[in-house]
TrEMBL record:
Transmembrane residue ranges: 12-34, 105-128, 148-168, 189-211
Catalytic activity: Typically cleaves a -Gly-|-Phe- bond to release an N-terminal, basic peptide of 5-8 residues from type IV prepilin, and then N-methylates the new N-terminal amino group, the methyl donor being S-adenosyl-L-methionine
Name of the protein: Prepilin leader peptidase/N-methyltransferase
Protein family membership: Belongs to the peptidase A24 family.
Entry keyword Lipid biosynthesis: no
Species the sequence originates in: Melittangium boletus DSM 14713
Amino acid sequence: MTPQAVDGVARVLVIVMGLLFGSFLNVVIARVPAGESIVRPRSRCPHCGRQLTWFENIPVLSWLALRGRCRGCHAPISWRYPLIELLTAALFFACQRRFGWTPELVLALVFVLLLVPLAFIDLEHWILPQELTWPGIAAGVVLSVPLGIPRLIDSVIGAVAGFLVFWAMEWLGEKIFKKEALGAGDKDLLALIGAFLSWKALLGVIFLSSLQGAVVGSVMLLIYGRAGPAPEEDTDAAPAPTPEADAPAALEAVPGPEATPPEAAREEEEEDDWVPGPTNIPFGPWLAVAALEVMLLGPWLSEVLPVPMNVLLTGLR
Ligand SMILES: [Zn+2]
């Protein structure tokens, strides 16, 4: 085989790996917020509980072949499953194009495998589980080792700075606005982004995520009357398992999105009883989008932007 052919086959393998890992991320997104194991049992239909056979588990193709319905009970299977598989494959492909066959590609792929589930879990449950963010921060630092000592130092500074910046913003928000503007998990996610992309990317990530979150949130607020996703979602196809009983119960106690949670309950168990108001947006997905933009489009951004903007956004000299 010619070197070009080998390269082509390797790229197809990266895409196939993206599809397979995307399929696994669907399991992570469904089970981690519920505190369930991601290794066993095997995947089941969330409606009838029927165990899926191997040919019902083929990324994208199974969903298309079954026309988005369970083979047993014919309940619809969410389009989120093939979407996450395709998204992961596309991001894997983009990472390969950006970094070639380098150690930085490994770092980028692992980063994608953390950002995709974190973004979708935050979008649905308004949490960024520490089961993902904390090992993720460690992975970002460890995977920076092959990139050399300077990058390793930048990674450690990035993790610490990411945590401290949001901690400071949170502290200011509580002192000045007397309310919680950022979720507790956002600190961990920014630390994770700092560990993977180094501190140089943090300013750009904060800028892009705030800007895009504010613009899209405002448009959503105008159209739908709320900036973020509704706290209570239609569980027609989502595999929301029952062990997570306390959260939906807390939501049912509140009649509508306009109602605020009782103060006492809020102070008692802040994390569990907090209900997102109409102007709240989950910030994790926006941080994830901005981090991917800076990582994948950094060189392109540095060409099209004037130099000062460029330094601010991508950390490039
Ligand atoms: Zn079924």
